[in-house]
Amino acid sequence: MASSATVGDLVSQPYKYGFVTDIETEKIAKGLSEDVVRLISAKKQEPAFLLDFRLRSYRQWLQMEEPDWASLGHPPIDYQEIIYYAAPKQQEKKASLDEVDPKLLETFEKLGIPLSEQKRLSNVAVDAVFDSVSIATTYREKLAEHGVIFCSISEAVKDHADLIEKYLGTVVPGNDNYFAALNSAVFSDGSFVFIPKGVECPMELSTYFRINSGDTGQFERTLIVAEEGASVSYLEGCTAPMFDTNQLHAAVVELVALDDASIKYSTVQNWYAGDENGKGGIYNFVTKRGQCRGDRSHISWTQVETGSAITWKYPSCVLQGADSVGEFYSVALTNNRQQADTGTKMIHVGPRTRSTIVSKGISAGHSSNSYRGLVQLGPKAVGARNYSQCDSMLIGDQAAANTYPYIRSQQPEARIEHEASTCRISADQLFYLQSRGIAFEEAVSMMVSGFCRDVFNQLPMEFAAEADKLLALKLEGSVG
Amino acid sequence: MIRPDAPVLLEIRDLTARVEDQPILKGVSLTIRAGEIHAVMGRNGSGKSTLSKVLAGHPAYTVTGGSVRYMGDDLLTLEPELRARAGLFLGFQYPVEIPGVSNLEFLRVATNARRAGKGEEELDTFAFEDLVRERLQVVQMDPAFLERSVNEGFSGGEKKRNEILQMALLEPLVAVLDETDSGLDIDALRIVAGGVNHLAGPDNATLLITHYQRLLDVITPDYVHVMAAGRILRTGGKELALELEERGYDWVDAELAALERTPAEVG
Amino acid sequence: MVAASLSTPTATAGTAPGSWVSALLADAAGGADARAAQALAQTPLPTRRDEAWRFTDLAPLTALKPTLLRPAPGTHPEPAAGSLRLTLDGHSDPLAGISLPAGLEPITGAGLGESLGQVLAATGSAELWPVLLNGATARNVLALRVRGTVATTLELVSDAGDGEGILPLRLLLVLEPDSSLEILQVHRSAGANLTSVVLEARLGEGAELRHGLLAPGAEAGCLLATVAVEQATGSRYSGVSAHGGWALGRLEPRLVQREGAAHSALKALQLADGRQISDTHSQMVFEGPDGRLEQLHKAVADGQGRSVFNGAVQVPRAAQRTDAAQLSRNLLLSDRARIDTKPELEIVADDVRCAHGATVSRLQQDELFYLQSRGIAADQAARLLLRGFCEEVLQELPAAASAWQPLASLLGEEGR
């Protein structure tokens, strides 16, 4: 046959968010020490309780060892070669968007996240984080009318210190794991969301993370609290420029849902993944955990993971409240030399708690894609139920798909079901679609989105189509 | 309908092709004009299915010689999807199942691709649904099949009806139907054949590839070609099919043996 | 006494793990494989920090007396018709006074040296701690070559009895191309002892091995059994195992299809009651295309019992068109029991079918209710359903197993 791109070619689409914004940045010196932790805290004018939290976490981090158990391989990270604080030079967070450096606004516009009044997305409030700081949050006033707080975590520390003190570190303790401890010591910025009792958040909330500096680590911290009967849907997006070196991204996300509250957290992760030889790209070592603290509370994680050189991420739910519900819907796509080890933990503590896991892994190129999950049912989780489904799609015969679903049960009055399957895109299926006039790329994309449909259906409408396109783009050139 | 002055749609000249290292087609020539219905008959392994795959551009088959002109242009350099957009349609002997991809969505994308090929406007979702519901009647198919994944869990007969539904939507100029009758009971055969007859007209052509006479009882061919060992051994009218039915394929072997003694006589 | 000096006894009083091994090696010295003894002395005892032992504590094992055991002959049911029983006590020659059926012959001398350890290496099992322990302590090997079809079922029986110590058993089967054999291993115990079994089986092209393993244990007894199987193309291996009742009972079937295109089936039942640990770590590696695996693993945990299953399946790039299905079904009958189950699929080939599933639940309420509504008492109904759950595996054991009353012996209900 004439040319026909292979699926291999299809996946090798250039990364289109790889540009660097030329902006004056304030950075502190490389390296990590107690002084650096104090300096970050001082720069942010933090109250004493927070500095304490940072220092305790830092000291515990010093005692911990970097985990090596995930099926990942990467050269050792030199934590003294990383810059722990970088911020675009503008004095204060501006009251009005008009005062924000136009270069920054332009950057986000290029990324498809217009922030200005005229262009911003309707019905989606956006917090834009550039390197270590939040530069703008849209629709704040409208949200405030409903009592909803949506701001950067630095502002929250100043304006809502009581809430931060009450909730920060209660879901992911400062010593939870190596990367969470590091984050707790040096976190720079991130988003804070508070939905008061009985309020249904009137619009989608969204934070957009952009790493710009080449030698900066990104350690953002997100905290979302939904009080009794409150509900919110939140979306996080991420990109980074292309650098030859690897950058570390070690975020912590904490969700707290009280009685009858509901939090839906969606991620479309498109950090720079490195080139086809595995040079450069983000190391994405993230701790995300939600606690269904209240009865009948509900936390749902949806993630579309397409970027990063290495991803190490297990958004989890601790189902404490009776009848609480945890969900995890994931699409993880790896290509070239990318490595992803991702999955979830569903910890059933309370009675009649329910969880659903739907994981779709797509491996192409020489990549490695692992699902690692834990479903744990404690002795009090009477009548708990879990259903898990992990499907893998392999594209080409050089990619690896691994599945490690741990199940631990101490609860006889519970039901756990797990299913998994492996499939591929076969040449015959592609030919069939092509012979009906459907172009090769579109045929691949139809099959991939068919495979991912159960997960895409969970994304907020505004983003489902985007996720679809993103996957198609990432896969361009790799089926054959 | 034979009209000597009708435009030539497909012209195959001395076509040779192999799959992996195995030569399958060893010099096939065939001319198809608008309005004609051709039938290619032959035993399993005679190369008739290969001919259909090569025409549609299946990547597993390599053309080693000869030419195929479609509407005057070189067909063989085109990607499969461009052949389809230009109006060449292959009805598969074994349509594949594509889990996760909705049949309706698939039909819509394919139809719009073909329309773009004809320079027509895309149909929006609503206009397409009207069209597909109308065309469903050609094959008497339950609209419920639109909601399922492409061919997934369809019975043999349902898959073949889905093929003819696609043909009805894509309105091809040349339809190549590979063993469309295989695996069909008599009612399904009648429905499928009815669909093919309904779609055949003075401006398009049909190439039926079949093993049995029974399809030709319901679709009357203008020409019958007998294929063996990668060549067309004989061409005649519909009576040739009847002759095959009566005498079986044994005489083909004799003729083939004769040919192989004098290869120079075959083009 | 070399072994003793190689190990580093820890400061703890009593039988610390390091000194447990050195005491055992001292007792086993002479007679056993010196290289294995050295390797064992140098290998630390597995701990819960090792992924392969994460849920399995070796404490019940190191509580045993570190000496070699020479069990007294036990009383056993009459062998079933059509089966030949060989009794293994770790010391005497099991073939003494036995005439082997047609198709079976002992492997001795150079042939044995060539074959022994080969399958362990091929399945990546040579360095496993239970295998090292066995190698360091086993004094003899029962090694048999199989040609053609052997009509007799071979029963390999050990009974550690109520003595204290370690009973190491080493077995080797070489199945020549197109040969066929059925064997049944039975391992019993009634006391504080360890039965350590290593079976190597090499299946030539087109060979077939039907393999049953029945191991009803004792409250203080331990079982560590490794079954290493290497399969050539066209061969069929069917392993059916049932173990339970041990303080620590661990079974490690490790299969490799060297060129793919073979058929492997694993069916297992394990039971854990009281404070018992029942563990299966299986590994299936496809090194060539067109291989098949059917695996069913069933587990029951009651009392404060603990059931562990880890099922690894590796499908490297060469293993196109592999078809592997694994199902783990678990019954959790008490709120103090625990089930840990983890499939491990590692797939690189793209044209494969690999499915796995796992369920953990208690007996189905609607099934119980149905039986109760027919006048059957609740506990009896539960018993019936439990039996049904177990029988699905037990009925696949070789016919010769029925003499051993598999279900009753596993549930501790037999009239001993």
Notable characteristics:
heterotrimer; A: 480 residues; ten-stranded mixed sheet; 24 strands; 22% helix; disordered N terminus; C: 416 residues; nine-stranded parallel sheet; nine-stranded mixed sheet; 10 helices; 39% strand
Describe this protein's structure.
The complex is a heterotrimer of chains A (480), B (267) and C (416). Mean pLDDT of chain A is 83; it is low at 1-12. Chain A has one domain (2-475). The two termini of chain A are 12 Å apart. With 480 residues, chain A is of the alpha/beta class. The radius of gyration of chain A is 22 Å and the shape is globular. Chain A has 11 helices and 24 strands. Chain B is globular. The mean pLDDT of chain B is 88. Chain B has a domain at 8-96 and 172-265: Rossmann fold. Chain B has a 6-stranded mixed β-sheet with strand order 6-9-10-3-11-12, with helices on both faces. In chain B, strands 2-1-4-5 form a 4-stranded antiparallel β-sheet. In chain B, strands 7-8 form a two-stranded antiparallel ribbon. Chain C is an alpha/beta fold and 416 residues long. Chain C has 10 helices and 18 strands. Chain C has one domain. In chain C, the strands form 2 sheets. In chain C, strands 1-4-6-8-10-12-14-16-18 form a 9-stranded parallel β-sheet. In chain C, strands 2-3-5-7-9-11-13-15-17 form a 9-stranded mixed β-sheet. The interface between A and B is medium-sized, with 27 and 34 residues. Strand 23 of chain A pairs antiparallel with strand 17 of chain C, so a sheet runs across the interface.
